[in-house]
Specification:
Structural class of chain B: alpha/beta
Bound molecules: flavin-adenine dinucleotide, adenosine monophosphate
Strand content of chain B: 25-35%
Strand content of chain A: 25-35%
Strand order of the largest sheet of chain B: 9-8-7-10-6-1-4-5-11
Number of strands of chain A: 15
Shape of chain B: globular
Structural class of chain A: alpha/beta
Order of helices and strands of chain B: EEHEHEHEHEHEEEEHEEEH
Helix content of chain B: 25-40%
Radius of gyration of chain A: 22 Å
Radius of gyration of chain B: 23 Å
Number of strands of chain B: 13
Largest sheet of chain B: 9 strands, mixed
Shape of chain A: elongated
Oligomer: heterodimer
Order of helices and strands of chain A: EHEHEHEHEEEEEEEHEHEHEHEH
Strand order of the largest sheet of chain A: 7-6-5-8-4-1-2-3-9
């Protein structure tokens, strides 16, 4: 059976975005649509499934399932794939999924594509548009010669849309035998970052090399605090030690999705924009009127961010 | 018993040069509609792979005797000579038409090479290639070799145990650093947090000139052409257009511009 299946782990974000996308692809292929949830599930699992017109939801639970990226998760999904075949498995591209998807693909002999931004069906063949060169270009991959395929999709690029007519989803508990499988990689120590994360922030103020020196990063903190938001940074100033690694936005940093993103002294390189282009409103402050960041921005101020940032703090407070 | 390290290295277009063209709006796609053909863009070793070589050299310097082999599918002589100049033992070129391979095929060739050498204790890769950004070859390679896969490392330490080698890796995760332990053989991918890769010394460059690059073909590795038929094909590449609807907020002074911006954000309902 040539199913299209969305695969998610626990309550990690992106499930509903992927279900909206997957539903469209399934319709385009004329294929049945499904959802498989590994490990813990969101509390409103069935409501989401109904809203997204998913007829069948499969749950795989096992005390051995500790993470989405490990040996057990790969074995569980490979076992699932043998019993419940599919043409296309879509996973939201989380940190763990970046390992899980290619490992699973190799194990079940499936083609694999990551960094997906969208899928289209043309003449019965699936085409995936993905980002390349850190966002400088887009590539289109054709998935040919029969499945299965595993595709990782950047959910922050997608929208959620409810189905026209909701379904009454059926929940199946799928048992997989994980008897002989144990994690070969053991976590010895984990430094828990405490406090809020920029991925979840609603307002972000980000600084870049245009701040000139380390001490000026304080201006970013001050505006972030005044707005009740979080401070973030471009990679060069994280490399320089002006800001902590957890604040780095972009391809090799965090993917954020705030309602407001203020970028000060940031040029707008694709590798940075990958991490903030999904912001609802982007504001750029740059002294170069031709800076690429203005192409992405909704509002911009051309000027010296060292002068403008303190004035913004005053304007917010005043 | 020496630790057998294999580093997988890919040749890519200089991402900074690509970036500069993109920022100036001058990035051009070739006539085939899918490749970047600007001749002025230099070809380099993927930076993360350079850092994977660095990780291997650091393991050697920390006191573990190793053999370090650098293998590439499709890289030119320049790239492999560069690897040789860093003090690795053997540069290997796997001859293949990379444009006709997908990532499964790439990993199949790399796996066949490792097996042809009787295996490896530590396979080091970059976290992703800076051209396609896929980051899938190491994981697929791990599966083909039946090895665990540890991704996004900032540090790799190896200690000899009675029977083999114990590997400790510090990973960079969204929740902070994570230290993991795994027994060799294993695959590890290296991230930029490892730090600056070294430059070749003059003596290294001289030695590299004499070093022979081993060359092998898919057939010699026992990989049949029909197992390399790609399932995923790159059919098109384009430069995304950005909408560009920026409203420039003016003001006679920084204070006025700032006040105007905040007022505008409030009137739009972005700020309360
Ligand atoms: C493989 C790879 C991965 C990468 N990953 C990331 C990533 O995850 N995140 C990331 O951010 N980058 C990443 N980069 C780097 C990226 O390509 C850019 O180099 C980087 O984003 C530029 O940072 P920036 O904008 O702070 O600095 P610059 O590009 O130097 O820009 C500084 C800007 O500040 C402006 N400016 C200067 N002074 C002032 C002033 N007083 N007031 C106002 N404006 C001023 C300048 O006009 C300029 O536009 C990556 C690169 C590669 C190759
Ligand atoms: N053609 C290749 N030759 C050797 N190693 C490669 C090749 N392609 C990918 N790799 C390795 O796999 C990593 C990830 O590549 P990718 O999956 O293409 O993003 C790279 O950093 C290399 O270490």
């Amino acid at each position: 059976m040539s199913r299209v299946v969305v695969c998610t782990w626990g309550t990690s974000g992106g499930a509903e975005e992927l279900l909206t996308l997957g539903r469209g692809v399934a319709a385009g292929l004329g294929a049945p649509f499904g959802w498989v949830v590994l490990g813990p599930a969101p509390h409103d699992l069935i409501e989401i499934a109904n809203r997204q017109d998913v007829p069948v939801v499969d749950r795989i639970e096992d005390p051995k399932l500790q993470s989405f990226g490990g040996d057990v998760a790969v074995a569980a999904l490979a076992a699932y794939a043998r019993e419940h075949t599919f043409t296309l498995l879509l996973v939201p591209q989380t940190f763990d999924a970046r390992v899980l998807a290619p490992r699973l693909a190799a194990r079940i002999d499936a083609g694999v594509v990551m960094n997906g931004l969208g899928l289209a069906v043309e003449g019965g063949e699936i085409a995936v548009t993905a980002s390349a060169y850190g966002g400088d270009t887009r590539v289109v991959y054709a998935l040919g010669g029969g499945g299965p395929f595993v595709v990782g999709v950047n959910a922050s690029a997608l929208d959620v849309e409810a189905a026209e007519k909701p379904a009454t989803a059926v929940l199946r508990h799928v048992a997989v035998d994980l008897g002989g499988v144990d994690e070969r990689v053991l976590v010895v120590n984990r430094s828990e970052t405490t406090g809020p994360r920029i991925e979840e922030a609603d307002i972000i103020v980000a600084g870049g090399r245009g701040l000139g020196e380390k001490d000026n990063y304080r201006l970013i903190h001050e505006l972030a605090a005044a707005l009740g938001g979080m401070a973030a940074a471009s990679r060069p100033i994280v490399d320089e030690g002006w800001a902590e690694p957890a604040r780095q936005v972009g391809l090799t940093g965090r993917i954020t999705r705030p309602s407001l993103y203020i970028a000060a002294g940031i040029s707008g390189a694709s590798q940075h924009m990958v991490g903030c282009a999904a912001a609802k409103t982007l504001v750029a402050i740059n002294r170069d009127p031709d800076a690429a960041i203005f192409r992405y921005a909704r509002f911009g101020i051309v000027g010296n961010c060292l002068e403008i940032l303190p004035e913004l703090v005053r304007a917010v407070k005043g | 018993m020496a630790l057998r390290i294999v580093v997988c290295a890919k040749e890519v277009l200089d991402p900074d040069a690509v970036n500069n063209y993109a920022l100036e709006g001058k990035l051009v796609i070739g006539e085939d509609g899918k490749s970047l053909t600007q001749a002025s863009i230099p070809r380099l070793m993927n930076a993360y792979d350079e850092q994977a070589i660095e990780a291997a050299l650091r393991i050697r310097e920390a006191g573990t005797a190793c053999t370090i082999t650098v293998v590439s599918v499709g890289a030119g002589t320049e790239i492999l000579k560069h690897a040789a100049s860093l003090g690795i033992d053997e540069p290997v070129a796997i001859q293949a038409d990379t444009a006709a391979l997908d990532h499964l095929g790439m990993a199949k060739l790399l796996a066949a090479f490792v097996q042809s050498r009787g295996g490896a204790d530590l396979v080091l890769c970059g976290r992703q290639a800076s051209d396609d950004d896929q980051g899938v070859v190491p994981a697929i390679l791990g599966e083909y070799l039946g090895l665990p896969v540890v991704t996004i490392a900032r540090a790799v330490d190896v200690t000899a145990t009675g029977e083999g080698f114990a590997v400790r890796v510090v990973r960079v995760t969204p929740d902070g650093d994570e230290t993991v332990a795994v027994a060799a053989p294993t695959v590890v991918t290296i991230s930029n947090e490892l730090g600056q890769a070294r430059y070749p010394t003059m003596a290294g460059r001289m030695a590299a000139r004499k070093k022979k690059i081993t060359s092998v073909t898919a057939t010699e590795l026992g990989v049949a052409a029909e197992t390399l038929v790609p399932r995923v094909r790159l059919v098109k590449q384009f430069v995304p257009t950005v909408k560009g609807a920026c409203e420039v907020i003016e003001g006679a002074s920084p204070a006025e511009a700032a006040a105007n911006l905040i007022a505008r954000l409030r009137s739009e309902g972005v700020l309360r």
